[in-house]
Amino acid sequence: MIAEILSIGTELLMGQIANTDAQYISRRLAELGVNLYRHTTVGDNPARVKEALGEAIARADIVITTGGLGPTEDDLTKEMVAEFFGLPMEMHAPSLEALTERMNRLGREITPNNYKQAMMPRGAIVMPNLRGTAPGAIVESGQKAVAILPGPPHEMQDMFERQLAPWLRKRSGEHIESRFLRIFGVGESKTEMLLLDLFHGDNPTLALYCGAGEVTARISARVPLGEDASALIDPMEA
Predict the structure, then answer these.
(1) pTM for this structure?
(2) How far apart are CA 135 and CA 158, in angstroms?
(3) What is d(CA 151, CA 148) in angstroms, rounded to the nearest whole number?
(4) Angle, to 10 degrees, between the axis of helix 46-59 and the axis of helix 77-85?
(5) 219 and 187 in contact (C-beta within 8 Å)?
(6) Which residues contact 153 (CB under 8 A, 6 or more apart)?
(7) CA–CA separation, 166 and 164 (whole Å)
(8) Distance CA 238, CA 199 (A)
(9) Which of 8, 23, 144, 197 could be bridged to 68 by S-S, CB 3.0 to 4.6 A?
């Protein structure tokens, strides 16, 4: 399974907040055995969101979006996904009920634009938001899928772990394990020359990262779910 992350939000492009969502999802996708090939960040512009979505879905099996699920006019992620797949937007009654209950519990007024958050592309797998008001969704079309997640990290992470991760795990059938070796006293270029014959395997793989005063060697192996990767990693580590 090949994935891409599409982060939506002008505040990301302007550097007002760090894109910790993409970092978190990237790490979890690796653990779930999903190949992540690209990150894209785009502002809250419908035309650019739709263009970026089309480019990503042409390359990947699944595109994971973050952001753009709020109640305001510039929150248009679901609408752009629905338009891309030619799907109408429909009111999702359970989401509306959950939204109303949450707003009442918090003592907040429900304004007309709040109801926008309960609208979903027809046929979507709705992912309830247990930490906020904006539910997510998985929209499938043929062999392609788009997973729509909220932007606030605590909401995104909870939805990813409870709902998207199990969906991905069943479809991937694999997971990736990594082991990290820290090397001191030898530079990155010298380390690569010493280990050159180990860099060209498919499984496991070896990569080097240069840090302050050390080089980190990452050994990663892909194995079926439930299988221990040590049998592949141990010989390379040795």
Answers:
(1) 0.84
(2) 11
(3) 10
(4) 60
(5) no
(6) 20, 21, 24
(7) 6
(8) 15
(9) 8
